[in-house]
Amino acid sequence: MTNYLDFERPLAEIEGKAEELRAMARQNEEMDIEAEAAALDKKAADLLKDLYKNLTPWRKCQVARHADRPHCKDYIEALFTDYTPLAGDRNFADDHAVMGGLARFNDKPVIVLGQEKGHDTKSRIERNFGMARPEGYRKAVRLMEMAEKFGLPVITLVDTSGAYPGKGAEERGQSEAIARSTEKCLQIGVPVISVIIGEGGSGGAVAFATADRLAMLEHSVYSVISPEGCASILWKDAGKMREAAEALRLTAQDLNKLGVADHVIDEPLGGAHRDREATMQSVGDAIQKMLGELSGRSAKKLVADRRKKFLDMGSKGLAA
């Protein structure tokens, strides 16, 4: 069953009517409704194309958060082989919001990391809705150190509304853990590839996305704060999230122009959730391309180029 977003309600009505006709035909084989159903299908396809032709930043936020969108676990299962999860930060606990471990990508050994939001009520609670605690970022640091020790590329899959803001997380050094993870991304002498697969929120995303190459799915978003949070601070009204989304320039297209995102990965019409397999294949192709761009570089050059990339960030957009 398709989950429709608010702005897709007209589409839901048309596709619902087509499905009702086909359900009636299945119950009464003498009914000939194919022509009428096909006409509704065409109308729905045209409307879908029109809806997604020029999505506003706020609507892109909604698509990026869609519950049926492929998550980190889906990408790992689809694109990586011999995945061996590694748990815990060797200090406090294992954070289930962060997945990570050894794997093979196109038969080459890598370390893969990412935030997992979960797909149903039980798994979302277990994964804390993809909001990592300090031990999640410390686990990421541990795995990045392992990657450097064995000369393995690091691939991160980012999908989080932000780091968990709870009392316990703050007591255990949330901001310090995020800073250490960001620092480690900048320091390691192996290729670091990051893909924003949904929502890249605040420092919780930066701690995984400080990479040599950053790709974003077409309808993903990446920002220092959520539109609702920004609106609450600036206008004391979370209902102004649409205006905030415009101002934040959080879309893949804006960030590509600013030099923050290196690549924008096309999504199927209607978003990644409408053709999960095609989306995951496109992400795999993009990862392979980015790894190829970094192939053969020494550890010293990787670190120097990564540092320069972030020091120069924003100059591309300002010059324009």
TrEMBL record:
Record-linked PROSITE patterns: COA_CT_CTER (PS50989)
A Pfam family: ACCA
Class of enzymatic activity (EC top level): transferase
Main location: cytoplasm
InterPro entries reported in the protein's UniProt record: Acetyl_CoA_COase_a_su, ClpP/crotonase-like_dom_sf, COA_CT_C
Pathway noted in the entry: Lipid metabolism; malonyl-CoA biosynthesis; malonyl-CoA from acetyl-CoA: step 1/1
Keyword terms: ATP-binding, Cytoplasm, Fatty acid biosynthesis, Fatty acid metabolism, Ligase, Lipid biosynthesis, Lipid metabolism, Nucleotide-binding, Transferase
Recorded GO MF terms: acetyl-CoA carboxylase activity
Keyword DNA-binding assigned: no
Protein location: Cytoplasm
Domain CoA carboxyltransferase C-terminal: 39-293
E.C. numbers: 2.1.3.15
Keyword Ligase listed: yes
Family designation: Belongs to the AccA family.
Name by which UniProt lists this protein: Acetyl-coenzyme A carboxylase carboxyl transferase subunit alpha
Record organism: Thalassovita aquimarina
Lineage per the UniProt record: Bacteria, Pseudomonadati, Pseudomonadota, Alphaproteobacteria, Rhodobacterales
Gene responsible for this protein: accA
